[in-house]
Design a protein that fits this description.
three-stranded antiparallel β-sheet; 2 domains; about 210 residues; seven-stranded antiparallel β-sheet
Amino acid sequence: MAKDKAKVDKKKENNNKKKRLIITFLVIGIIIVVITIFLIVTITNNKRKKYDIDYNIIENTLDYMNDNNIEKVIDNTDNKRIGNNEYGYITIPNSWHRFYEVEGDPMVQYTNNIWTICIFSKYVTQESAINYSESCFNTMKSEGAVNINKETVKIGDYTAYKVYGYYENQEMWQTIWCFEANDEKAHYICIKGPDKDSEYLNIVNTFSVNE
């Protein structure tokens, strides 16, 4: 009888040990779940904070660009809007890329490696649009361009003085428009390429003072 009682007691003790182990594992499992949830929430909050900071940086950068007339590119699927508050904005094909012809050149210049386009402006107190176009005419003449012509055309509501000519050594036509917009500036747009009747010349009609 004593042996049987000992066996029973031992069995009870083993069962109690199993129960304690199960309870221990359950407690550990709950603790792990709680810690995991806490970490997930913490990481998620940190990411949200990061995105908030990044968004503020973007807003501040855009404000700085507006205030300092830094070039902006507004991109969509096929075309992009380029320019700044100083020179105005035009729409060009998305595949064109920025280039710098001369170090420190203030012009905004883009190319597709065949065609080039440049935009610039100066205050009319420095030079009127018609005088600006005369300067461009004389420059093209001094550079050896031939078949130079002048026309008065319209770019939207603006009267533009158009100058165009052919550079034989480059096999390129250069077309320049000088016009005064409603911002007291004489604007300059120059498009250069192998065809004087190309549809690229219509880019000038996308001009606006504001974005």
